[in-house]
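cron nightly-structures :: item 1 of 1
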Amino acid sequence: MKNKKVFDVVVVGNGVLGLSLALTLVKNNLQVALIGESTRPWSASTAAGAMLGCYGEVTSTLLKSEHGRLKHDLAVRALRLWDEWLDILGDSDNDSIRTANGTVVILNTASYSKVDDANFEAIRRSLLDNNEQFEDINPVDVEWLDPYPGARPERAIYIPNEHAVNSIKLMQKLEQAFIELGGSIINENGVKIERNADHVDALILSSGDRILSDKIVLAAGVKSQELLDTLPDIGTRIPRLVSGFGVSALVATADESSPNNVIRTPNRAFACGLHVVPRQKGEVYVGATNAIEPKVAGNPMLGNAVSLLESAYRQIRKNLSHSRLTQLQVGNRPVSLDGFPLLGETDLKGLWIMTGTYRDGLTLSPYLAREMTKLICGEDADADLKAFKPVRTPIQPFTRTEIIKETVDHILATGYENDWNVQMGWHNIIEKNIPSIYEKFTKELHSEFTPPADLLAAAMDDRRIAKMLYKYYLLQES
């Protein structure tokens, strides 16, 4: 081996989650190494709209299960930490990380009512249940919103405390603070985890250098799976990670205008809803698509990019069709095979995981950094994190029939949002016949276990994902 270095904790992954954890650990007077290429080629953080989407991300399905409600509760706790977190990072009027003041959620006519209506009401219900400030507003009064008449909004709510940040600036501030407190940045990838009997011992880097530590945290999103694969007896007991691959765009507006707040729809069509987020003057972020991929991907799919941009000018602002596309971005969100986060220590002592957060990683970052630091330091932390311990049987909050129904609803929502051209009467035929196809497919996967809707739809289209699920479920029986 080449050089050896010793640290109290090694954090693998330099996206927002990894940076936030590394900073919080170093504040506890620990010697911390942060591992990851400076370009962050596979990161979700670099392509994120960075909405602090606690309430805007709520769906009716999320609130129907104990694990779903708990996941939302973690986001509520995180949202309350963000003002203090930004203050710690030196956010100021002259150098602001924040890009949007509040969020407007619109309910428009461009998608499937069974999905959008239910999710819009779920957002309102969660706001009421948590005594969070919001306002029902007339969509006509939403500044900057100017959609095509065929996609006109029927209702809207304004959530004043749900902002957005510039993810690039946020990571720069986190990294700067980490270095100033004595943290070590290692601009390489980890390729292997070494163990000493039942305890983690070292991380091997791509250069061959050996980083010694008895505490290693995997916070590298989907790429964490590659390191777990070097420990097959450990990794097979943890839901495998796949990519929620998304495409987003930066757009220079034709009239050099931008909204003051986020404008978004509820979550729909297996994605996080259409959203436009202000960046600098005359520039907006448009997002985002979602496609489950078996591993990280680096290039946008043409169909996703076209659908995203067309939806933006049809549903949000007509004038965007005359604007300039300045950058097309891709991100790989970490998704576990049961759809829930992986938080805590594994069966290998000293090996920790903080990923699988899907679309919520950035929002959760200050909260998870605080609570995971407590756990790593041997202190009492929020007991609710135990619900998402990495080594577990698949979390399945719903029956197979309920999951298939949700899958079908979102498939139909995809068609309606993209203005599908189906002959009269065929909408009902499709809706009635798709469930039987999925019922047959799920029985082939396993007699009992069924993946969440977005993974089920992906597995039907991609046999690689189907094989992952089949193998994962088979291991539960051994």
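cron nightly-structures :: done
Residues 426-445 form the longest helix (20 residues).
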